Amino acid sequence: MNLAHTLLRVARADPRRPALYEGERLLFDYGQLAERVARLAAAMREGGLAPGDRVAVFMRNHPAYLEVFYAAWWAGLAVVPINAKLHVREAQWILDHAQARWAFVTPDVGAGLQAPGRILDVTGPQYPALFSASPAVLAERDAEDLAWLFYTSGTTGKPKGVMLTHRNLMTMGLTYFVDVDAIDCRDAIVYAAPMSHGAGIYAIPHVMAGARHVVPASGSFDPAELFALARTVGRLSLFAAPTIVKRLVDHAEATGSDGEGFKTIVYGGAPMYLADLQRALRVMGQRFVQIYGQGESPMVITSLPRSYLSDTAHPRYLQRLASVGFSQTPVQVRVATAEGEPLPPGEIGEVLVRGDTVMAGYWRDPEATAAALREGWLFTGDMGALDEDGFLTLKDRSKDVLISGGSNIYPREVEEVLLLHPAVAEVAVVGAPDPEWGEVVVAFVVARPGQKPATEELDALCLEHIGRFKRPKRYEIVAALPKNNYGKVLKRELRQRLQEDGPPAGG
Ligand code: AMP
Prior knowledge:
alpha/beta; five-stranded antiparallel β-sheet
């Protein structure tokens, strides 16, 4: 089983089908793309890379991503995509840890990176020279062979290298058609988020379907550009973290667009608050599908398909909207105690998942592997509860749960309430160390432009909706929340800030 075979079969059956675009400009059809991939694969092999070797990719979003990924697989190698926002020293740590031999870079992010083999700038003259090799034959791979070393986004500690096999990614790709969206060759995917991470894996089902791949000309996220692309390209889908969805919806609202040209907006990667989701549905219509996954089981744990997002007559519609949906087809999902004992519906525990999309383990880290994978179950580190129908509601990452006066408080619950205030744009709730209570609740609030939510009003909202003990003891109004490249709020940084500040004078 070689994932690159999915490209070969489409290219053979329909070589003239458009494949890769930069903005609106068609670069290659499937026949040309597959030929380039086979030539690049040959250059990698002739350059001394052997099956099983790793190739690092440290680039901003660029059309070369697709070629490099598929060429590496074609040649029997594994890819190590590195988040383009990382400092070159952090990227170097990943490259060294992965023992990658070659690295493909764009000069804006990759300057200074070193590799034992070659460093190739995909915007420089060396890159086209690689395509003069005669096309390689597709390498034979075992289903359990490594295809992608997926370094976790590192909201805690050093990133870990998640080992994803050809089977993991093949299953993930096929599952998309059942649990996320039926796609065919008329569809298109736009890479608006980093291709080193969430967005890049969407290439896999879209290559399987022979669909079009669009890398925005700006190489980054620009709502105006995306809306224009949606209108010209048509049937355009994308993956977006909730913060990005919010900006798309803001743009649609400001310009009076209903999202024409967009087919599906897959959201996930961080909590989508109910109020934001309802607004998104109101402004842009039934174009949304939610996925819940993590690097360790990419894209595939649960999903909330379109039909459930539109089933407004269902008695538990709102609970379902606030959930992350139910288990995707190839996996089993369980909520369990820290020891792995399954819990009944309604009880909160750790989310466990088992199935063919679950990673083989962490690269060169048997201890972390043993902690995360036990008897075939992946311990996700997410806390949640299942309902009687199998819908999972996530509470928080286990490490984000705070304990105040002996009671567990799930910050997300408090955040949902504070977001009901019309002057609140964003909020993050964390625990601050407290000598009396262990931890106390602190809310970091970003106000909507020109507005200032009054603390008394926020407090009153909490009293109206949640237990008194969950109310924030302090509110910090801030200009912005610290986020990583994928739009996830870095609660670790907020907690650190509170630790450095110490308890406020007088209490
Ligand atoms: P990563 O491994 O960087 O993709 O991060 C995965 C983590 O993001 C998960 O373990 C969850 O904590 C969070 N996450 C992913 N999808 C969702 C979702 N739909 N809703 C809430 N949190 C999510």
